[in-house]
Design a protein that fits this description.
The complex is a heterodimer of chains A (about 325) and B (about 450).
Chain A lengths: L1 H7 L7 H19 L4 H21 L20 H8 L2 H34 L2 H16 L2 H12 L4 H8 L7 H4 L1 H26 L3 H9 L4 H12 L1 H16 L3 H6 L11 H11 L3 H26 L5
Helix pairs in contact in A: 3-16, 4-16, 5-10, 5-13, 6-10, 7-10, 10-13, 11-12, 13-16, 15-16
Chain B lengths: L1 H23 L6 E7 L6 H16 L4 E7 L3 H13 L7 E5 H9 L7 H4 L10 H5 L10 E6 L2 E6 H6 L11 H14 L4 E4 L8 H12 L7 E2 L4 E4 L2 H15 L6 H4 L4 H9 L5 E7 L17 H4 E4 L1 E2 L8 E5 L1 E6 L6 H11 L2 H10 L7 H4 L2 H6 L3 H6 L4 E3 L6 H16 L5 H16 L4 E3 L2
Classes of the chains: A mainly alpha (about 325), B alpha/beta (about 450).
């Protein structure tokens, strides 16, 4: 580097360009030294976050498989898995089911119900708050498999729900078989609402009461205060919560797997279940990984949309 | 502070990773890992392995046998086994391997060829030739030593048949006869499940083999043309088989689809439905009675007075009048084993005459060693052995190719689509054809004549 610099300036006349370059280089060196403390964190992120993403993407470009000759050494097949995926009639159905599940159970169900509960609990007395809070958080505290089994026991053909219906003389349908999506959506709302409720309770506590009070003095009705004061003020929490519940819901696997196994047929096969089926039931690791990569992209897109739409950084 | 934390974190991670490597490390040469299935009513192999382990450790001091029973339904078992085999630190030395997976797993490099040991094993001659063939890989080497084989037929409850006014012994000649009997059972007692056919993705290979193939091989069509080595697509037999199975479920002559799609349905059938008389007919395997023996998980002393067997008829009674499917399991050696000689000794011990016989009796297996099948103790141990050995004459074997496992999955997809009414038999068969072409390519298939 120095050698070329000398060769380019044989007369060794002071060169303003050269000087600036030197300064920039030393500036770069300084900031490089300053960023050394960040290195461990960056390394950790790279190893545990970026690494899996890259290996997932690479895996989706191979014909890696659990058995057969491809298990010995997977070969690179380019975008074959993606082409096959887009031609597979199960795929669009699965994407649609994933969005139905996401919108109904997370974006509408968990968020709206969570916010509603948080608002109601604000004006409730201590005892009610304690009881409701415990009940709601109880569902969330259960480990996923236990929660899923509880939901299975509730919805199954001779389960709790149908026993309750029977006492008032109604013969309930076989929920998990006839309404698989409805069942898993309700179960996911039941399980996930607590999270939204906790986030919104914390956010509502941060809204200064004097602002809402002064709005009330100005004659704003309840819903107007909610629309023009409360919601804009907790916008950042809404954005964070939407993003977290979306990502959680996109990756829900155990709940659906235990309740319906993705069935009957493919009627509740969301993308994680489809990926599992292809990778571990049918042994097509590469194909399954392609589905997982698509799921990753969907999650990333949703996050970007929330960040843009709700602009949490602007105040 | 942050940096120290980071350094500590990296050090800890590195430590964990290293510990992970060394803890597995392929075990050591003095530990033999034996992986096998233990699920639901199938506990006989677990008992067998425990006995062999004790005998082996006594005869070979210094070598420890580590039993790894995998509690999973059949297809999950294959998945778990394959995942274990993928890494040298978890790969078993000896594994319980279905004959239809041998070729595929040998191809994958999971299994070690056994030919060098077989030359010195004087008992290898006792095994029947067709059983030996089931353990061959695509390269012609032997990868699995057969433990026993099986056939499949209709099991029916004589009491329920008598109550419904159906003749006993029952001798259906066509598929229509089977359906008629199911309808009669249903009319006589609506609470009885008339006919069970294993079906759907949850049952995996059991659905393909006990269910679908028991029909398809009784039509004029077949799954795989062995002469041209091509998979048959667009066959009427395929559509007819799907249609029959779909109709049984859609017309309420089978279990409800949600019962049938439950992974535990096999256990329910053997432990509850048949002994309690809630199921009339089950298209099931020759091993079924193993559950009801004293050594089984649900002893049922009267089973042989209540249950009877009849061969599965062909579609319209065409020659040879009946059909069956045969499979069977083997013991195979892991290619990543660090002590292959010790592993071979274990297989040799586990499948010698006495051990083969005790296992075949306990698990109701059709013997694959001539010295076992000719043994009077074996013959007398189970009254159904005679029947199930006889239908070996009409039995079929699954296509011996490494693609079979994938294609079998596609069959379960088609079955589930028709049993739940999501597709007609024609649509499901067309989807299957497309999937098969996707697996083996246009050149690997042939149109049915």
């Amino acid at each position: 580097m120095t050698a070329t610099a000398i060769a380019a300036a044989p007369g060794r006349t002071p060169d303003p360009e050269q000087h600036r370059r030197d300064r920039r280089r030393s500036g770069a060196r300084r900031s490089l030294i300053r960023s050394i403390p960040l290195l461990p964190a960056v390394l950790l992120l790279a190893v545990f976050l970026l690494g899996p993403v890259i290996s997932s993407f690479y895996g989706s470009l191979t014909d890696s498989s659990l058995s057969g000759s491809a298990a010995q050494g997977a070969s690179f097949v380019g975008f074959d898995n993606y082409i096959a995926l887009f031609q597979d009639p199960d795929f669009p159905k699965s994407v649609l089911l994933t969005f139905v599940f996401l919108i109904a159970s997370a974006i509408v169900g968990q968020n709206v119900l969570g916010l509603g509960l948080a608002l109601l609990m604000q004006s409730a007395n201590g005892a009610v708050r304690g009881v409701v809070g415990t009940l709601v958080v109880g569902a969330w505290v259960l480990p996923e498999v236990v929660g899923a089994f509880a939901a299975y026991a509730f919805f199954s053909a001779d389960g709790t729900l149908n026993s309750l219906l029977a006492t008032i003389g109604i013969t309930g349908p076989s929920w998990l078989y006839s309404f698989p999506m409805l069942s898993v959506i309700l179960a996911n709302i039941w399980r996930g609402t607590a999270f939204s409720m906790l986030v919104y309770t914390a956010a509502l506590n941060d809204v200064p009461p004097e602002i809402t009070e002064s709005a009330a003095v100005d004659g704003a009705r309840g819903w107007q205060r909610l629309r023009y004061i409360t919601l804009p003020m907790i916008r950042r929490s809404i954005s964070t919560n939407l993003m977290l519940t979306t990502l959680q819901t996109l990756s829900v696997f155990g709940l659906i797997f235990v309740m319906t196994g993705g069935g009957p047929g493919t009627d509740s096969t969301t993308l994680p279940l489809l990926a599992y089926q292809e990778a571990f039931k049918f042994g097509e690791l590469g194909f399954g990984t392609a589905i997982a990569t698509i799921l990753l992209i969907v999650g990333a897109l949703c996050s970007v949309v929330y960040l843009k739409a709700l602009k949490p950084e602007v105040d | 502070m942050k940096r120290t934390l980071g350094v500590v974190a990296i050090a800890a991670t590195a430590g964990l990773v290293l510990a992970g490597c060394s803890a597995g490390g392929g075990g050591d040469a003095n530990t033999l890992k034996v992986a096998y299935q233990k699920f639901g009513t199938f506990t006989q192999l677990d008992d067998h392995m425990k006995q062999v382990k004790a005998a082996y450790e006594e005869a070979n001091p210094g070598v420890t046998v580590k039993l790894i029973p995998i509690e999973a339904q059949q297809n999950d078992y294959f998945t778990k086994l394959a995942l274990m085999n993928k890494s040298a630190s978890t790969a078993p030395d000896i594994m319980y391997e279905d004959t239809f997976m041998v070729k595929s797993d040998a191809d994958a490099g999971y299994l070690a060829p056994l030919d060098e040991y077989l030359g010195d094993w004087d008992e290898w001659d006792k095994f029947y030739e067709n059983a030996k063939a089931a353990g061959l890989g695509d390269d012609g080497k032997t990868y699995g030593i057969p433990m026993g084989t099986d056939t499949r037929a209709l099991w029916y409850n004589k009491d329920l048949f008598a109550d419904a006014g159906l003749p006993v012994p029952w001798e259906p000649k066509t598929w229509a006869d089977v359906r008629d009997a199911a309808e009669t059972l249903k009319a006589a007692d609506p609470d009885v499940i008339p006919l069970n056919i294993y079906s759907g993705k949850a049952q995996g290979e059991a659905a393909t083999m006990q269910g679908f193939e028991m029909f398809l091989y009784g039509t004029d069509d077949t799954l795989y043309d062995a002469d041209s080595q091509k998979w048959v697509v667009g066959s009427q037999g395929f559509v007819d088989s799907l249609e029959f199975i779909g109709d049984i479920y859609q017309d309420g002559l089978g279990p409800t689809p949600e019962q049938a799609l439950d992974k535990n349905v096999g256990t329910s059938i053997a432990n509850e439905w048949l002994p309690q008389g809630t199921l009339g007919i089950s298209l099931d395997g020759s091993w079924l009675s193993g559950t009801w023996l004293e050594t089984g998980t649900a002893p049922w002393p009267e089973w042989n007075d209540v249950m009877a067997q009849t061969p599965m008829p062909t579609q319209d009674g065409q020659e040879p009048g009946a059909t069956s499917m045969s499979g069977g399991w083997t013991l195979a050696m892991g290619s990543k084993s660090q002590n292959k000689d010790a592993a071979w000794k274990f297989i040799e011990l586990a499948l010698n005459k006495d051990n083969s016989q005790s296992y075949d009796i306990a698990a109701s297996q059709i013997a694959v060693r001539s010295d076992v099948s000719e043994d009077t103790d074996y013959q007398a141990s189970n009254p159904t052995f005679g029947f199930f050995s006889e239908i070996v004459d009409v039995t079929h074997f699954r296509p011996a190719t490494s693609d079979y496992a994938k294609i079998s999955n596609e069959i379960t997809v088609a079955m589930e689509a028709v049993m739940t009414g999501q597709q007609t038999a024609k649509e499901a068969a067309a989807a299957y054809d497309k999937a098969v072409i996707g697996i083996v390519g246009e050149d690997g298939t042939t149109e049915a004549k």
